[in-house]
Amino acid sequence: IVKHLDEYVIGQARAKKILAVAVYNHYNRVRANLSLEPPHEDTHGVSADQEDRNQRRSWINPPSEAPHKPNTDKPLATPAIPEEKTVYEKSNVLLIGPTGSGKTLLAKTLAEILKVPFSMSDATPFTQAGYVGEDVELVIQRLLQSCDYNVKKAEMGIVFIDEIDKIARRSDVHSASRDVSGEGVQQSLLRMLEGTTIHITDKSSGGQGHGRRNTSSGSMYGQGPPGKGETYTVDTSNILFILSGAFIGLEKTVQDRMAKGSIGFGASLRTIGKDSSHALQPNQPEPLSLVEPEDLVKYGLIPEFVGRLPVVASVNSLNVDDLVKVLTEPKNSLVAQYKGLFELSQIGLRFSKTALKRVAEHALEKKTGARGLRRIMESILLEPMYDAPGSYIRQVVVDSKVV
Ligand SMILES: Nc1ncnc2c1ncn2[C@@H]1O[C@H](COP(=O)(O)OP(=O)(O)O)[C@@H](O)[C@H]1O
Ligand SMILES: [Mg+2]
């Protein structure tokens, strides 16, 4: 997983490691928990597709609600979950760090190689149920869509929610209404993180006018493709949540706490590990790598919500060297993109090392991480992109004088 992330994302080694571990453990946990489930009905002679459908139906009407279980000939005296087996609980991840440092890119890149359904959403439009805006349940709807409404698969999926800091409780007076909804959204998300059942109606394919949920036992549904206003019931207890946000201003909270010498510093293994590994290095660890739950609560997340996020990964802000690498190294890097663009007009494009460094320095000044790079490149290359095509120019060289 890390190797794949390395192809597109510069640096952020620790965040990559944490994500890789989270995803790998998620696979194993889901597999282990599945083996704890009671065996379901005999599906011999049924195609895989049919089996999927049966599974989906059995989740629309949970097996416990089915009138009669057919396999009564088996000795069923043993409980569903043998006591000695371990039930693995999930460890949701919170990914924090400055803007333009690769959080969203990490998630997008991760999505490409995941072997489970994945949905990506932005928390900014989320509002409490009943308010204008998006409902948090949309994240589950998207997850279902990503696996063609296979509920069983979706229940093992991964949900990524970006800009999660936007639903923090606000303490300033003039945003009192936002305050309420931010907390309300956190409450709804909390229920999902804890594990709840969510009813999703597939509106996308157009309803047939009659609800199909709870009509009868699962196996009695008519043939034909699913969809058309069908309602799906998704249990979120095995879904892994990865939440991400910039949490602007959070460093200050961390620094203040540490300056006070209050609890937290050295109180957790993570802090100790981080601290000692940096002990001999001249530069201090970034404050965000020392975030404690109390800091997040102070920022405006409700304590129960923070409690459901046992893993915190932080991405670092990118320095000049990192930004130069962002320009040149990833697959699909900006330099590669512009080179390709010029090549389409049979024109060579080259950058001097110092020019790239100047571009990186300009981006650093803008304080938007790697986000500023493209705008700077566009403005540098405007003239050559205007002049060169269709002219005698065969080669464009960008050196530090023009940056
Ligand atoms: N670590 C990185 N490695 C490579 N490219 C990056 C990195 N960080 C940011 N970028 C570039 O900047 C853009 C914005 O980054 P993004 O991941 O959206 O930042 P954020 O951390 O704010 O979510 C990305 O599309 C990518 O081109
Ligand atoms: Mg982002």
Would you write up a description of this structure?
α14 (353-366) crosses α15. Among the domains are: 2-37 and 80-196 and 236-245, P-loop containing nucleotide triphosphate hydrolases (Rossmann fold); 320-402, Helicase, Ruva Protein, domain 3. The strands form 3 sheets. A 5-stranded parallel sheet has the order 2-3-6-1-7, sandwiched between helices. It is built from 15 helices and 9 strands. It has helices at residues 2-8, 13-36, 48-60, 103-113, 138-146, 151-154, 176-194, 250-259, 269-278, 293-299, 303-307, 320-328, 334-343, 353-366, 372-387, and strands at residues 93-96, 118-122, 158-162, 197-201, 231-235, 240-245, 311-314, 348-351, 395-398. The protein starts with a helix and ends in a 5-residue tail after the last strand. It is α/β, with parallel strands linked by helices and 403 residues long. Residues 41-70, 206-224 and 267-281 have low confidence and may be disordered. 42% of the residues lie in helices and 10% in strands.
- Choose one word for the global shape: globular
DSSP helical segment count: 15
Terminal CA distance: 36 Å
Could you tell me which ligands this complex binds, including any ions or cofactors?
adenosine-5'-diphosphate, magnesium ion
Percent in helix? 40-55%
Low-confidence stretches: 41-70, 206-224, 267-281
Q: How does CATH name the architecture of the domain at 2-37 and 80-196 and 236-245?
A: 3-Layer(aba) Sandwich
Note the quaternary state here. Answer: single chain
Q: What is the string of SSEs from the N terminus onward?
A: HHHEHEHHEHEEEHHHHEHHEHHE
CATH class of the domain at 2-37 and 80-196 and 236-245: Alpha Beta
If you average the pLDDT, what whole number results? 80
Question: Major β-sheet, in short?
Answer: 5 strands, parallel
